[in-house]
Amino acid sequence: MASQFTPTAAEFLVLVLFGALVAALTTAWARSRAAVALAVAHTERDAHAARVSELTEAAADLHSTATLLAPVQQALGRMERQVGLLERDRMEQFGLLGERLTEVSASTTALGAQTSSLAGALNASTIRGSWGELQLRRILEHSGLLARCDFDEQVAAVSSHGARVRPDVVVRLPGDRALVIDAKCPMSAFLAAQRPDLEPEGQQVQLRRHAGALRGHVESLAAKTYWSAFTRTPQMVVCFVPSDAVLAAALVADPALYDDALARRVVLASPATLMALLRTVAFVWQQDAAAENAQQVLALSRELYARLSTTSAHLGRMGGALRRAVESYNALVGTLESRVLVTTRRLEDLGVVEGQCAEVNALEITPRPLSAAELIDAVDAEHRRPELLLPSPGAPPDPHVRPA
Prior knowledge:
The structure is a single chain. The chain folds into three domains: 50 residues; 147 residues, no CATH class; 99 residues, no CATH class. It is an alpha/beta fold. The protein has eight helices and seven strands; from the N terminus they run ααβββββααβααβαα. A five-stranded mixed beta sheet has the order 1-4-5-6-7. The protein has a two-stranded antiparallel ribbon with strand order 2-3. 13% of the residues are buried.
């Protein structure tokens, strides 16, 4: 059996001191740990406090920024609504535009078909001539000229060479003059050049053919000498081209065509040029009518002045006659008072008659003499006329003049 260990007092004291040391160390470690934890807690608290302060300042700044940006936000909202409305309107407009484009496409197709039909119809010379004459008549009417008054259509005549000619229109000018217009124009090559399937080179060839055809027509008109078939006519003929494009295409292909036509006494006129020419003719007619009216007004003025002169002379003679009549009347009144009434008063005094003769007073009013120089001159001129001179003694009295 083993012997039981029994510590001595020294060992017991060492154990007690060791235990106290371990307890002290444990307590110190615990306190150090608590101090470290407390320091960490203080550090975290300070950090949290700083973070809270930063967040508070950030929140204040954010509130201030939100306050400043509130109008901008409202404006953005209104803009967003406006953009929405615009987008809706844009979509509606796009829809309408699509419908219009569809209609335009259909109209273009129909127009192309009608143009092709018209071009085919104009290839016939008779239809082309009728169309040109219709265009010419419309221009004549729009220019202010009247049919069968200011112009005649399809007038037959004979030229100086004995050839019968029949121009489309003869426009009458003042002074018994006339202007000849021809409405026939070649257009077949020009219409052929407008085909959409034709290449540019082919179009140029057709346009040159068109210019050559128009030049040949100019030569034909020059050879007819329309101006020799009508009296007092300008020595030229107007070749009406019923479309500005037709004439422009010919002049582009042949720039010398216009000058050469003028040299041949042929004036190439597009609708715009002919309208200006005919408006000038209408204006000349108006001026001629105004001049004729002015001549009539002048003649009437002269006649009125002559009649006023005669009237003034008659008025002067009437005033003289009235003055002489008043003088004769007053003389008669004087004779009546000085000679006749004396006898009647004596008869009254003798009782032969009853009552009294009415008194007759002299006239104190005389005709107003003429004072205007024109009237006095007219009276003097009238008095100087031979037929108004007094007859010589012994001459038979004028039966048309009553004695004063």
